[in-house]
Amino acid sequence: MLIDSYMPHPETYERHTLEIAANASDVYEALWTTNLAGSLVIKGLMGLRLLPGRLLRPEENRSLKQRITLQDLIEAGFGMLAEEPGREVVLGITGPFWRPVGNTLPFNITDFAGPVRPGVACAVWNFTVQQAGENQTTLSTETRVTCGDGASRLKFRIYWLVVRPFSGLIRRVMLNAVRCACEANP
């Protein structure tokens, strides 16, 4: 998998998989075009994540988009690290994720080429599509994180203890949105 070339030995990872009754090319296309934030669960959780910024820095525009596609995520700060069209896309983001505001840095691909800088964590996030049978496809997503130093690792672990269940829920809802889009348009 392409994700292995960016973070083969993460400190933290989470993987989710879903079977979809569609062919792999349709699933990959739907991955790019489906509204990944159409669910009230995702809108609510993303709204909570934006709340500290709205309270602490009200002058900055932090509105939640009604529609979020994979391309919107890339434009919002998740840089594209790699893509094998029709099979896998790998995104990356760096920052002190545990901070309530100012928790991501501008995307820089060099952040993923060597050791993680002290004071931050690097995260890679992929989606893979694999034909599992006639008209049956497996869609998976994996998130991997590595921290730059011990202090960052401790802060991230505390943050992840709280955030992980909700992060996983968001990813499962996103996968399900792609499945619903595929199965609604056979």
Q: How are strands sequenced across the largest beta sheet?
A: 1-5-4-3-2
User: Which consecutive residue ranges, at least 5 long each, have pLDDT under 50?
Assistant: none
**Would you tell me the structural class of the helices and strands?**
alpha+beta
- On the 0-100 scale, what is the average pLDDT? 90
Kindly state the percentage of residues in helix: 25-40%
Question: How many strands in all?
Answer: 5
List the total number of helices: 4
| SS strand fraction | 25-35%
The 3D shape can be described as globular
Cα radius of gyration in angstroms: 17 Å
Highest CATH level, the class: Alpha Beta
- From the N-terminal CA to the C-terminal CA, the straight-line distance is 28 Å
SSE sequence, one letter per element = EHHHEEEEH
* Major sheet size, sense and barrel closure: 5 strands, antiparallel
CATH topology: Alpha-D-Glucose-1,6-Bisphosphate, Chain A, domain 4
The total number of structural domains is: 1
Q: Mind explaining what this structure looks like?
A:
The protein is an alpha+beta fold and 186 residues long. It has a single domain, classed as Alpha-D-Glucose-1,6-Bisphosphate, Chain A, domain 4 (2-Layer Sandwich), CATH 3.30.530. Helix content is 37%, strand content 26%. It has a 5-stranded antiparallel sheet with strand order 1-5-4-3-2. Helix 1 (24-33) packs across helix 4. The longest helix has 35 residues, at 150-184. The mean pLDDT is 90.
Helices, strands, pairings?
Layout: E1 12-20, H1 24-33, H2 40-56, H3 70-75, E2 79-84, E3 88-95, E4 121-133, E5 136-147, H4 150-184
Antiparallel strand pairs: 1-5, 2-3, 3-4, 4-5
Helix pairs in contact: 1-4
